[in-house]
Amino acid sequence: MSTSDIRVEKGHAEPEEVAAITAILLARAAAAPTAAPAHRGRPKAGWRRLEREGGFRAPHSWH
Known about the structure:
This protein is an all-alpha fold. The chain has one helix at residues 15-31.
């Protein structure tokens, strides 16, 4: 990883601060499980696609 891989979007970060956040990110990446989660098929989305919804809903119904 080189210094050009990390960019400060707003403000100014000292080299020590960039080094600290880089160490944290690398430690988290190393601790992440390497095995893929055991999903059966595709995981279900937590939201609905509006184009697949019916066009009319009764005024007293809500989702």
